[in-house]
Amino acid sequence: MVGDCxxxxxxxxxxAALGQAGSAPDGLLSTNALEGTYTTMPTPAKAKEIxxxxxxxxxxxxAVLMRTEGLTVAEITDLRRKLGAQNVELHVVKNTLLRxxxxxxxxQDISEYLQGQTTIAMGFDDEVAPAKLVSDYLxxxxxxxxxxxxxxILERDSLTPAQVADLAKTPSKDQLRxxxxxxxxxxxxxxxxxxxxxxxxxxxxxxxxxxxxxxxxAAA
Length: 220
Prior knowledge:
Largest sheet: 5 strands, antiparallel
Number of strands: 7
Helix content: 40-55%
Number of domains: 3
């Protein structure tokens, strides 16, 4: 009993010291005195943020992680507006919360990319749109501070910045649809021309013969 009480007292003192040091700013610190272990539990507000991130990660088609501390508020607003027009959402997130949410959503481990400030662009309709829009914007944005792509997400797997750049060069769904329709319509137009040309020639011959016989061709 003495040893148990001593362990509880030591654990309580350690917990108080950790709390004073501010080791768990984003959560509540719980302890198991008998095992001597400590766990940071998210606050209700943080738990809600994690749940929202999980829901978004489960729905998205692709995403881009980036550093945007070099962009001004006006530039961030402009980027968010351009992304929103293509149903791509922009969020500044805490690395710890995003890591937990990604694990819960069944994503490949992305913790190596969660260093420093993180902003995520989430695409819900098109796998290419986030990479293309973000790459185009960062290429044209004029800022004296760092603003760069950290990683990408496609089909719940992580992409390197080089792979994100390659994905950005891929035609979007609308572009692919237009190319497919053009590829189908082109041969069809040519086929129609080949079929209709002899028919027009035959009609012209018949009309000429009718005129020679003194008749009038029927109105078309």
